[in-house]
Amino acid sequence: MQCGVAAFLIVLCCSGRVIFIYSRRVIDQHISGSSVLSKDMADVEKALQIHEPERKTNKTFFAHKAEFQRKEAMKGLITIQSEENNVGIVSGTPDEHIKTRTVRIYKPAKNAMQSGTDNINFWQISFDTRERWENPLMGWCSSGDPLQAMRVNFDSLEEAEEHCKKMGWKYLVQSHHDKDPMPRNYGTNFSWNKRTRVSTK
């Protein structure tokens, strides 16, 4: 039975049985789909039969052993042996502030306020003073030196010297003499056996 409609369906009832008869176009599509599937399977089998190229490692790629060792050595970082780790070369600081400057390493003195001496146990570096001029606007002292007001604190003298060596600065150490504090008591001013009491009569 031939029909031009794709979705046409004839239902026949025979002896209590229902028979579904599909259209010829649907059957043709099923047959064509089966042929496409078989064609794809043939392509897969053909692809499996293709021999892949042999994978080669670096050792097998470089025929000569010396060439392979040279290639391996070129992969690593370059290490330069130096007696001093001079950071000032790559710091970006102009040469005029590295080669022509002198750093003073000293221990700052206690200020005149009533705070204790626990916060002065450190070493400090400062640079020499460059040329200054009077500002014509306000009369203030001006300078074009970017390092004149820089102060860096260190816990010890050795750390300060090591920092100056790394930066490539010439430095001088100002000696410091620790003084033993004298015991003082306010009540001594009014002691009976001290000649500190002044009579008003």
UniProtKB/TrEMBL annotation:
Function: Accessory subunit of the mitochondrial membrane respiratory chain NADH dehydrogenase (Complex I), that is believed not to be involved in catalysis. Complex I functions in the transfer of electrons from NADH to the respiratory chain. The immediate electron acceptor for the enzyme is believed to be ubiquinone.
Membrane topology qualifier: Peripheral membrane protein
Keywords for this protein: Electron transport, Membrane, Mitochondrion, Mitochondrion inner membrane, Respiratory chain, Transit peptide, Transport
GO CC terms, sorted: mitochondrial inner membrane
TM annotation in the entry: none
Keyword Ligase: no
The protein, known as: NADH dehydrogenase [ubiquinone] iron-sulfur protein 4, mitochondrial
UniProt entry tagged with the keyword Mitochondrion: yes
Protein location: Mitochondrion inner membrane
InterPro entries xrefs: NADH_UbQ_FeS_4_mit-like (IPR006885), NDUFS4-like_sf (IPR038532)
Top-level taxon in the UniProt lineage: Eukaryota
Family statement: Belongs to the complex I NDUFS4 subunit family.
Any one biological process term the GO annotation gives: electron transport chain
